Amino acid sequence: MLPRLFSLSNITATTRLHGYRAFSSKVAPKNYAFAFDIDGVLIKGKRTIPEAKRAIRMLNGDNAHGRHVPFVLLTNGGGVTEQAKAEQISNMLDVEISPDQVILSHSPMQALVEQYKNKNVLVVGGKDRECFHVAKKYGFNHVFIPDDIHHWQASVWPFRHPSRDSISPDAASLDFSKIPFGAVMVFHDSRDWGRDIQIMLDAICAENGVVGTQKGDCKVQEVPVYFSNTDIIWSTEFPVPRLAQGSFKMALENVYHTLTGTNLQSTSYGKPYPTTYAYAERVIERINDGKKPSRIYAVGDNPAADIKGANNYGWTSVLVRTGVFQEPGNSPHFPAHSVCQHVEEAVEWVLQQEEDKEKKA
Ligand code: G3P
Ligand code: MG
Fold it and tell me: Which helix (H) or strand (E) holds 167?
């Protein structure tokens, strides 16, 4: 069944309410577009940032000039499908967001399917088996999660029983002594750092990727490792930022280096990495009727991810003070093109810039 906001009657109701549809091919392609960060810009945990609703309404035509401006959500969050995130944000902002407008930290990792679709992949992080389903949906055919290995042998992590973990329907037939891992991919934040670091090391340091064996020479890393983001911290409804996937990565790297004397080799996605921006530009072009906008405005709260990434990729960055960044002035390490109190002010600033440009042209 379609969720509340996605029923036809509700789309019509929203259209009637605001005189537009959030994402419509009738909207003329624009020469500029927005990429919004989610956590700390539009929402904080379960709470909607109030100015976010007005900001999105403005882009959907509710502005002095009646302009409709294309936008995407570009987040280092994930752990669910693009469809599920679109529904969550649509409900929280009370506006229709299409899954086509959502770029999650792991969305660009779909490029890895070609290489790993028929290999065994250990997918780490997220709630229950959600990342397992995301990876399967992307096209990885042989996906396993740490819970599967813990269920196979509880002694893998003897400090707690695997009973609280999600059980694979194939649990009884899984014998990991016969399953060589071809890659380890972290899709979202680990729910049990100790257990997951242990199991990742088991796979990375194993002979031919078979958990329960150990390579003679740990200096040569055979199992590639991928991270979907490297944020050290992120913003929730808690007053102080929380540890994110990048902190987990540092913990893993530290243990790996201590044990092997070598640095863990890995590839990272998400902001601030160019692969993610290249992917986002293709998405923006697609939702803008195939036209590449000349300017992309990135609105974010995390200087090390949102601002660094946008600046490096030639986008215009706008830093807001509703999330990770709260200090006065600009970020000293990754200064943004503009700093605003919140996302509504950011959108107003951009629309004004663009109106001024139009007048001059
Ligand atoms: O790293 C945690 C992630 O949830 C941050 O998301 O939307 O701030 O990029 P976002
Ligand atoms: Mg953020």
Answer: none
Query: What is the phi/psi pair of residue 333, to 5°?
Result: -85, -40
> Separation of 75 CA from ligand 2 center, angstroms?
7
Which atom of ligand 1 is nearest the CA belonging to 245? Answer: 1
Other C-beta atoms closer than 10 Å to the C-beta of 342 total 20
Q: Within 6 Å (CB) of ligand 1, which residues are found?
A: 37-40, 75-77, 229, 231, 234, 244-245, 302
Q: What is the pTM of this model?
A: 0.91
CATH number of this structure's domain 16-104+276-360, picked from the four choices 3.20.20.70, 3.40.50.1000, 3.90.220.20, 1.10.340.30: 3.40.50.1000
Burial pattern 78-90, b for ≥16 Cβ within 10 A else e, equals: bbbbbebbbbbbb
Atom 3, ligand 1: residue with shortest CA distance = 77
Portion of the chain with pLDDT greater than 70, in percent: 92
